[in-house]
Amino acid sequence: MLNQTNHLQNTINNNLQAETTLHNGVTMPWLGLGVFKVEDGPEVVHAVKAAMKIGYRSIDTAAIYGNESSVGQGIREGMAAHGLTRDQLFVTSKVWNADLGYESTIAAYEASLEKLGLDYLDLYLIHWPVQGKYVEAWRALETLYKEGRVKAIGVSNFQIHHLEDVMAAGSIKPMVNQVELHPLLAQTDVHDFCKEHGIQLEAWSPLMQGQLLDNPTLKALAERHGKSIAQVILRWDLQRGIVTIPKSTKEHRILENGSIFDFELTNEDMAAIDSMNQNLRVGPDPDNFDF
């Protein structure tokens, strides 16, 4: 039994460290831990350390989450506990709407680094496309990138026209676009645009904040594969070439979310999930968000 457990852990470790290559040559894990709405303090410290123990190497936070200090603590403690170095991790944060603008975005980046206790971020994102502000913020991200202070830059919650704006105004294409994405919001048009332009799509709220965990279509697929509904959804993301950051604070759920590399959905399975799309959001509409 112990040998089987060790084999499972090794398999998860190896696959959790599988990476995609962004258009600037930086590599990014396909699966990471999201910490949206995870309370600052022991809860998020434990989640980060648990993820690192299981084999996760990507942690995604944001200034507005209010937990960057504890995320940094979890990273430091996890590195010490598991003999990891900073270059083995991929850490993402985001600039919040109130700080969008050239100088204010650079200051926000420095504030996030200080809270995290890090010398650099692997990925820094504009959190939302606030009208009239996101282009200037993108210029600030380009400056940070050109100065070598961040490994990769990107955006979050950008629709196609937002992406076109920053691509027209800037000199660097976003490397990542992180959007709400799940079976009821497949984001096919955005995904196609990103693939065409070499922008890596990343899913937040891949489990629709738990609202899909009793869906009959997904339940039937999960039973067929001997997996959970969450694992089927995350596997669907992976097979679409989408980086995914499911959130959990419980170690057994973090482990379950990482255990998606030992099965494959068929073309029919993928089509069945694709057909569920309703363009239904649980988060704000980027074009109609009261900032």
Description:
It comes from Paenibacillus allorhizoplanae. It holds the Pfam family Aldo_ket_red. This is Oxidoreductase YtbE. Keywords: NADP, Oxidoreductase. Residues 32-277 form the NADP-dependent oxidoreductase domain. The protein has 291 residues and is of the alpha/beta class. It has a single domain (2-274), classed as NADP-dependent oxidoreductase domain (TIM Barrel). It is 44% helix and 13% strand. The protein is built from eleven helices and ten strands. The strands form two sheets. The protein has an eight-stranded parallel sheet with strand order 3-4-5-6-7-8-9-10. Strand 4, helix 3 and strand 5 form a beta-alpha-beta unit. Helix 2 (42-54) runs parallel beside helix 10. The chain is globular, with a radius of gyration of 18 Å.
Brief descriptors of the model:
291 residues; 8-stranded parallel sheet; 10 strands; TIM Barrel; 11 helices; disordered N terminus; two-stranded antiparallel ribbon
